[in-house]
């Protein structure tokens, strides 16, 4: 019985802050498959990216067009399998390593957040690790939704006798001990089939994690995460949102509309092939027309395969009526979801756009107007050896998967079916103790 059948996504073993490691990331999206391999080296305390315990050096990179995927889900198992193999093979060859496992992102399956509290009475005069273990166990019993899996389980803070916001409660005097926890859940079908496609490539899934959380790990500056920020990952088939506050990941949301829908609108408007519309959108796409855009002419290949038919020619400004309405629709959906999230309580919070669809000219300005927030485009931060082609917002999720081993210790997971039978030196309580020692 694998992790998904037990009700939770695979969890990565945290990397030791004193040891180097080789890690691999696999981002299987609607339009592209990216595999990155990196060497993590312990580093001392620094003024920037303070939460990272390791430096990250990219040693392998593979990037191919996705096939067999629709809105982040596997639609053709054989085609998805083939694309994953290609990307992994390219990365392995460039890094001269052979991969056995990868960390994988997911952006679909109705990703959603649950926030809940749990409390226990303290047995002795002060809080011990056994009290923390009982509290985490009590909280975890409430996590997850029917027919879904737990993707992330993150303690946000503890409460002692009604006083909230405690980071490390061990040794403190208390009678009542409480916990505030953020749990990310997803429907099981999409992750299960993605895991199947990856395992058919003779790879094990070391961790399965939420895409916008990974984008935040790679693209957020420390102050943004502390003061409040929303990371919006605009992919081809999905748009997902992660909210951060106080340096913690506190909320997730998303919907199945993305850049591919803009491409389809453009293809219909220009009467062009989808592949040609995607190329035109990538190189010339804009949501606002300038003076020069009326003069910039773009050839649009004919739909027919008849080479004698000349291409039509349109101005760059003529693309706006086909692109802007769908982009405005996506931004309005983002606005509504942010308004219903904890981000609404952060009036000065910044919105960071990542994903391939965020690269349209004029998008940050349009987003700032519709969202009523400061908006910037996010890119992977603090990584050496990153190829020039992978330094943009389209690769923020894949880069974040390489940061994640340094944040994995923050999470708490236990197999639902086995919580009641784990005892002894290798059981549940002892593992919680080890988790606490790594977390604080």
From TrEMBL:
Output the InterPro entries linked to this UniProt entry.
Answer: ATPase_NBD (IPR043129), Cell_div_FtsA (IPR020823), FtsA/MreB (IPR050696), SHS2_FtsA (IPR003494)
Cell compartments where the protein resides: Cell membrane
Q: Which UniProt keywords apply?
A: Cell cycle, Cell division, Cell membrane, Membrane
Q: Which SMART domains match?
A: FtsA
One term under GO cellular component: cytoplasmic side of plasma membrane
Membrane topology summary? Peripheral membrane protein
GO biological process assignments: FtsZ-dependent cytokinesis
Q: Pfam families in the record, alphabetically?
A: FtsA, SHS2_FTSA
Superkingdom assignment: Bacteria
| Record-stated family | Belongs to the FtsA/MreB family.
The protein's job, in short, is:
Cell division protein that is involved in the assembly of the Z ring. May serve as a membrane anchor for the Z ring.
Q: How does it assemble?
A: Self-interacts. Interacts with FtsZ.
Identification of the protein by name: Cell division protein FtsA
Q: Source species, please?
A: Pseudorhodoplanes sinuspersici
């Amino acid at each position: 019985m694998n992790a998904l059948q037990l009700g939770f996504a695979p969890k990565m073993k945290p990397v030791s802050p004193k040891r180097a490691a080789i890690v691999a990331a696999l981002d299987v999206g609607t339009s592209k498959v990216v595999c990155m391999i990196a060497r993590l080296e312990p580093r001392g305390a620094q003024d920037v990216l303070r939460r990272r315990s390791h430096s990250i050096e990219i040693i392998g990179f593979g990037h191919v067009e996705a096939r067999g995927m629709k809105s982040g889900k596997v639609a053709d198992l054989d085609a998805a399998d083939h694309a994953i193999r290609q990307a992994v093979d390219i990365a392995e060859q460039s890094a001269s390593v052979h991969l056995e496992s990868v960390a994988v992102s997911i952006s679909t399956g109705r990703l959603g957040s649950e926030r809940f509290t749990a409390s226990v009475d303290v047995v002795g005069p002060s809080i011990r690790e056994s009290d923390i273990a009982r509290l985490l166990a009590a909280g975890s019993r409430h996590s997850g939704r029917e027919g879904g899996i737990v993707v992330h389980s993150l303690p946000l803070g503890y409460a002692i006798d009604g006083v909230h916001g405690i980071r490390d409660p061990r040794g403190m005097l208390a009678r009542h001990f409480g916990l505030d926890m953020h749990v990310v859940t997803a429907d099981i079908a999409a992750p299960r089939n993605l895991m199947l496609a990856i395992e058919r490539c003779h790879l094990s899934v070391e961790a399965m994690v939420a895409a916008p959380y990974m984008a935040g790990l790679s693209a957020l500056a420390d102050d943004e995460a502390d003061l409040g920020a929303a990371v919006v990952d605009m992919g081809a088939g999905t748009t997902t949102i992660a909210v951060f506050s106080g340096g913690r990941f506190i909320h997730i949301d998303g919907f199945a509309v993305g850049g591919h829908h803009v491409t389809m609108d453009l293809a219909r408007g220009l009467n062009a092939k989808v592949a040609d519309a995607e190329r035109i959108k990538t190189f010339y796409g804009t949501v606002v027309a300038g003076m020069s855009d009326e003069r910039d002419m773009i050839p649009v290949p004919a739909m027919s395969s008849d080479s004698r038919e000349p291409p039509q020619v349109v101005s760059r400004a003529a693309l706006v009526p086909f692109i802007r309405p769908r982009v405005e629709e996506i931004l309005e959906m983002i606005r509504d979801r942010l308004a219903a999230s904890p981000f609404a309580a952060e009036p000065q919070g910044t919105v960071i756009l990542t994903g391939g669809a965020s690269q349209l000219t004029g998008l940050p300005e349009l987003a700032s107007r519709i969202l009523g927030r400061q908006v910037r485009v996010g890119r992977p931060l603090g990584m050496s050896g990153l190829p020039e082609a992978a330094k943009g917002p389209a690769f923020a999720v894949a880069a974040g998967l390489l940061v994640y081993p340094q944040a994995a210790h923050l999470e708490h997971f236990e197999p639902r079916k086995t919580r009641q039978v784990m005892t002894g030196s290798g059981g549940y309580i002892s593992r919680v103790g080890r988790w606490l020692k790594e977390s604080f």
